[in-house]
């Protein structure tokens, strides 16, 4: 596809431009590109170089995003491209997120999405793999087409985006999985080379807009503390600011990218995070470990099993009208 003029930027002196799409606010000289690699200053104008171009496409279980409370057991057409506004030390997808590989991209115009997104029982489109924030122009156009077709849009993101741009996307997006790296700026600087995170405010906006939100937190040795107080901070902040019904997925780290010599997270630490956070939140899950009882959903009122999971196998046990089979409490699921 030809390059397309970007949104959210300002002209500066000397042919430079400032991108304001994410809080990194890159100042880009003529001919240069932003930190995310795919927003370029072409003759004093900011353009996106990945509009309608994808590096990856799959029909994934929605549980893989991970979203556990959004159409459990469904399939979703999942696409990604190059680029990211963060540079996380353990990125699983750094080959596409921290490299620009135009020779590996295929063309996918927005109007091709509704048809692809309704094959194989898919419920819609997940913008995932790299971070969709830096793909704003395409995601917005694509999400419009998908929504018009009566399908769902899902954003899997680090959640660091200008609030103005977020508000433009919010009416189009049905569910978010936000990868919450940490609870302070220092964590983002050290782990993701990102100086000015606003993810906490973004999560609050998503929730305020009434959109479905789940969080992921990767627990990384050397970056996260393995104490109850540390995980308490996550539980408390989420409960107070996003609500006790916000699911969080604690994920076990395995060596990747710049952390090849760091050992995997001890399973006991994932269990500690689960136990501590369950005191504050109704729905806590573990990922990258095999513990079906901690991957399943229980009724917060009576403790009955509502959804039984083991890996990507899903058994829905709540009633067809969305109630706990034991006590009748309405379940916190979108389905
Ligand atoms: S979206 Fe990309 S170019 Fe724009 S500020 Fe963020 S990292 Fe920089
Ligand atoms: Zn119940």
Topology, element by element:
Elements: E1 4-5, E2 9-11, E3 17-19, E4 27-28, E5 39-42, E6 45-48, E7 53-54, E8 56-61, E9 75-80, H1 94-97, E10 106-107, H2 113-117, E11 122-127, H3 136-148, E12 152-157, H4 163-169, E13 175-179, H5 185-192, H6 199-208, E14 212-219, H7 228-241, E15 248-252, H8 267-277, E16 284-287, E17 297-298, E18 305-310, E19 313-316
Bound molecules: iron/sulfur cluster and zinc ion.
Could you give a short description of this structure?
About 20% of the residues lie in helices and about 25% in strands. The chain has 8 helices and 19 strands. The protein binds iron/sulfur cluster and zinc ion (ZN).
Question: Major beta sheet, specifics?
Answer: 8 strands, mixed
How many runs of DSSP E, i.e. beta strands? 19
Structural class: alpha/beta
The Cα radius of gyration reads 20 Å
The overall pLDDT, averaged over residues, is 97
Cofactor: [4Fe-4S] cluster
Protein name: Radical SAM domain protein
Binding site for [4Fe-4S] cluster: 84, 88, 91
Organism: Thermovibrio ammonificans (strain DSM 15698 / JCM 12110 / HB-1)
